[in-house]
Design brief:
This protein has six helices and twelve strands. The protein is an alpha/beta fold and 265 residues long. The chain has one domain: Purple Acid Phosphatase, chain A, domain 2 (4-Layer Sandwich), CATH 3.60.21.10. The strands form two sheets. It has a six-stranded mixed sheet. Helix 1 links the parallel strand 1 and strand 2. It is globular, with a radius of gyration of 17 Å.
Amino acid sequence: MAENNITVLCIGDVCGSAGVSIVERRLRPLKREKNVDFTIVNGENAALFGINADQADALFAAGADVITLGNHAFGRREISNLLDENEYILRPANLAPSLPGKGANIYPIEKNGRVFRLGLAVLLGRVHMDLMAETPFFYADRLLSQWEGQADGVILEIHAEATSEKIAFACHVANRASAVFGTHTHVQTNDARLIGATGYITDAGMTGPYDSVIGVKTETSVEGFLTDGVIRRYQTASGDGPLCGVLFTLNNQGRCLAVETVCRW
């Protein structure tokens, strides 16, 4: 029945204090409007490179159920203890297990007297990325096998640069994962769709200042290109911008029924 479907909102990379402010102002109204049951927010650029404890607290207070991180997960070293302590902050799962925190977990979603067990994992791509992660394809195979019978549905975030890697990954896990959403490139793609019973989008987009270069202050980004990358004084931009993401509707068996992009000013 439709009233028992699970609606999961996945918010693309939150950039800087401006991005955090956008989440604080726009997330809860959007969740009420769309009857969202669970919200995943990528917060790895909240502090430009990484996230700090105050920003994590702000995102949770604004309505995030889980905060995910990417290649800048350890950009703020002070966050290491928090990653070990808080199971609702996920760093990439396919990095060394000796690193702080974990990248995969099963979260209960209570709705209409029933508990839906949602498996969630963040995986790093390897094409043009700067960390030596295990291939997300093999890691996802093991994880999906491990969670069989334990999770009612599984959403995988693929934090990657190459669109080809993201699409290939989604095809690889199609009909095994409930949904796959891409992050990292900060530009929402126009390919939200179903691949079999798996919801997919190549990139959920950016939640941050519109007048910027993917969240970075324009003049500091341009300077980096003009100096061949030798001088880098990147700063996060300020100002307003959209809350961007993707909405997945899952049935009780974890099959994705619908995919909808959101870009809310």
